[in-house]
Amino acid sequence: MALAGVRIGTAERDSTFLSQGHALKTVLDRNPALAPVDVSISGDASVENANRLETGDIDFGFMASNWIGRANNGEAPFARSIDLRMVAPMNAGPLFFIARADSALRTVSDLRGRRLVVGPQTSGMTQHARAILGTLGLSFADFTPVYLDFAAGADALCRGDVDAQLQCPIPNKVMTALAERIFVRVLGYGPGELEKLLHAVPLYRRTVMGKGAIRGLDADVPQPAVVNVLVSHPRVADDKVFGVAAAILTARAELPRLNPLFNGIAELFEPLRSEGARALEFGGVALHAGAIAAYRAAGLLE
Question: What is the DSSP letter of 1?
């Protein structure tokens, strides 16, 4: 039976989600039962994709895992609870603080009393800033939060109007361009701080920003990473979700070659073997029945 194509919501133009969506389209279009695959822009990224899934405008949407529980619970900015279903992890994007290389800042705890770009006021990046810094005992009263997007924040750092910026992930165009304009430093964590953060915030994973990943990064730096995921809705047919999840699994070695943002995707499926479905059920959102069937067929779930 034809599945009438697949519609995927991503994020704004030139975004990381959009570039991943196009790589995913390359893989999914090979399956006649899934084609044609339509990749569309969602200006408000995770939030808009959740709302579009609720209205039936798309079948799948890219979301950062920190938004999923909020959508499921109907917490602001969502007007009501949205019944989502998990499909697959897409990547673990490092969340990292950068400063000018000529700055005295060395670790995240050094941000006390500084001017820090945390992202737009209602953004997911500001949520991450609160979660990370709060775990280290820093509230927004302990520094000067500056509410700018990635590009405007990078410009402010170049001018010296701010001391640091929270960025995610790599590669991203703003970060690559910024590192070419000025020398930057990625702030590390003090002894035990990263472990404390990862224990306190289950949706984060440990990652390492490798030496040379951006200009000026001259050593490996362990960092937290937020898992970005592909989400669907229970009304989307099980066989369609099965086809998408199975195609992603089959292509998990190829996807990083199509887009480096998929680096490490294969490892994100491995916890299914030891933890079961809950390994991918961020924010209390269950795996779609079609995804469960795909992971069982691949031997990742009992």
Answer: -
